[in-house]
Amino acid sequence: MFKHFFIILITFTVSISTALADKSMKIGKKGKQEDVTRIIKVLMYDNYFEPNSFKVQSGETIKFEVENVGELVHEFNIANQTMHKDHQSEMQKLVEMEIILADSIDKMSMMDKSMAHSHTNSVLLEPKKSKDLIWKFENVSNIEIACNVPGHYDVGMIAKVEIN
Ligand SMILES: [Cu+2]
Question: How many domains does the chain have?
């Protein structure tokens, strides 16, 4: 009985801190096609974005048409520095498991539920592939767009985001 109570208490505490952490993230959220007011074409090279900085209005919904024109796998990820750091260790594991290779992605393994790697705030692309990402910049602060493929963030595959 007592043991049960503690487990519930711990679960409760963990859910509260997760909720608080999410709230303070302030990166915006997945946007809807009908709310798109601007389309920005983004090219991913080895290892930089073109353009490498963005000016966005608070609250606006942008469709990013992301194309990987490099020779390596790249990611377009809208987050903040803390989230990027966390995501980099996740990506490192996928590389170690040979699911993400230098120039390709093992999609079969990626589709495996335990390895599912889809986040609403990012697209991971093989060379010559493209994908759209619609994002609503609502209630955002301190965000940056970056690639978390191991080593890429460290060599500066980061784009600044200025919010007005
Ligand atoms: Cu990259």
Answer: 1
